[in-house]
Amino acid sequence: LAKTTQPISMDSYEGQEVNITCSHNNIATNDYITWYQQFPSQGPRFIIQGYKTKVTNEVASLFIPADRKSSTLSLPRVSLSDTAVYYCLVGDTPYNQGGKLIFGQGTELSVKP
Amino acid sequence: DAGVTQSPTHLIKTRGQQVTLRCSPKSGHDTVSWYQQALGQGPQFIFQYYEEEERQRGNFPDRFSGHQFPNYSSELNVNALLLGDSALYLCASRNLRLAGGGNEQFFGPGTRLTVL
To answer: N or C: which end of chain A has fewer CB within 10 A?
Structure first.
């Protein structure tokens, strides 16, 4: 499974767009890129997943360049409730790797008023 | 539709004791995974159960064992507790057959275990 590197922490203000970049230089052809969000004392929550180019849902956008060696999670107009730890995960499909998720340290995002 | 539920929410044990944690997966899910999350760290994969069998295991000693029941619920057992076992224990579920591509799993709120 490819190793991921992301900033340990980030600060932002309400209403700003936040971009968290994750490096995964050894990503394999079959790997997907997945982001989870975790609030204190809660389990992680799936945010978004992609394989290439751009994916957008009601919560975030995920940008993946052509070489797939990095990805950027974009949170539009953050609010105080977006303060959480964000994890970037890279892994094969559940069928091949059994759904084992490898979490790194994550990025602790702090949104200030 | 209930999501993943775990019990108890908090637990305090002493070194050497044994503990059992319980998890009910989200409705329609057939696969349960367990994770250990130490303070300030990301969750670490313990093992996964599907069709009542352990399918994959992380780097955890045999003191950690589990079980999956016919209704897909699961238990995590930890024997001979150590101080280092203090952590948030998370259960995650998904439907293996319908997962398709990708790794979306649904996590429960966790059980906070404190070993004194």
So the answer is: C
